[in-house]
Design goal:
The protein is mainly α. It contains ten helices and no strands. The radius of gyration is 32 Å and the shape is rod-shaped.
Length: 212
C-alpha cells in the first residue's frame, strides 16, 4: 500500500500530464482578462490610499469585486442621466417659447400678473407665464429681440453678448420651462418656489447689473 508521500507524487505526475495541463493553457476570454485587469488596478489604488491594505488577503477578492461592481453601477447611472438630459435638450431645441401672437403682445407685467394668479392652483402654468414675463422683460430692455419663431437657444445666444452670467441663468430657467411646456412635467410647490425665486431676482435686478 502506497504511503502518503508516494500518493502525493503519483497525483502530481497525473496532473502534469498533457490532458490535464491543456486546461491551464487555455487563453483567457475578454471578460476574464478585463476582470483580472480591473481587480489588479483597483488593488493598486487601494494600496496607495491604504498602505496597510493587503491585496493578497483572503478578503481582498470579494472586497475588490464589490468595489468594482459599485463603480460600474455609478458610472452607468451617470451615463444614463447625461444621455437623457442631452436627448431632452435636443428634443426641445427647435421649440419656440412663444406659442401665439397673443403671448408676444402681452407685456412682461401682464405675464407676471397671470403667473401670480396661476400659482394658486397650477405651478406648471405659473412657471410658464413667469418665464415669459422674464423673456419679455429682456425684450423691453432691448437685451434680446423676442419673435414668435425664435427658440430659447437663440435668445440665449443674444443674451450672452450682453452678459454671460445672466445668459447661463436664463439657460437654466429655459430648461425647466421646456420640460414644463413640452415635456408635460408637473412642478411641485418646492420646485416652483425655487424657479420663482430665481426668475424674480432677475426681474427685480437693476439694469446696471447687465453692463459689462
Amino acid at each position: 500500500m502506497l504511503d502518503a508521500d508516494q500518493a502525493r507524487e503519483r497525483l502530481r505526475e497525473i496532473l502534469n500530464r498533457a490532458e490535464y495541463k491543456v486546461y491551464e493553457d487555455q487563453p483567457k476570454g475578454f471578460l476574464q482578462s478585463w476582470w483580472d485587469s480591473a481587480k489588479e488596478w483597483m488593488a493598486k489604488q487601494l494600496e496607495k490610499l491604504f498602505p496597510s491594505y493587503e491585496a493578497t488577503s483572503a478578503a481582498a477578492g470579494p472586497v475588490l469585486a464589490v468595489i468594482i461592481v459599485l463603480i460600474v453601477i455609478v458610472l452607468g447611472a451617470a451615463a444614463y442621466f447625461v444621455i437623457r438630459n442631452t436627448r431632452r435638450s435636443r428634443q426641445y431645441r427647435d421649440k419656440s417659447p412663444l406659442q401665439s401672437m397673443r403671448e408676444l403682445d402681452w407685456t412682461s407685467d401682464m405675464h407676471l400678473s397671470e403667473a401670480l394668479k396661476q400659482e394658486q392652483h397650477d405651478y406648471s402654468k405659473a412657471a410658464r407665464h413667469l418665464f415669459l414675463a422674464l423673456l419679455l422683460y429682456f425684450h423691453e430692455k432691448k437685451w434680446l429681440e423676442a419673435r414668435i419663431w425664435k427658440t430659447n437657444w437663440e435668445y440665449y445666444d443674444e443674451l450672452k453678448k450682453i452678459n454671460q452670467n445672466w445668459a447661463d441663468q436664463f439657460y437654466h430657467l429655459a430648461r425647466v420651462f421646456d420640460e414644463v411646456t413640452y415635456g408635460e412635467r408637473k412642478l411641485e410647490k418646492e420646485e416652483y418656489d425655487k424657479f420663482r425665486k430665481e426668475a424674480m431676482e432677475r426681474l427685480e435686478e437693476p439694469e446696471k447689473t447687465m453692463e459689462g
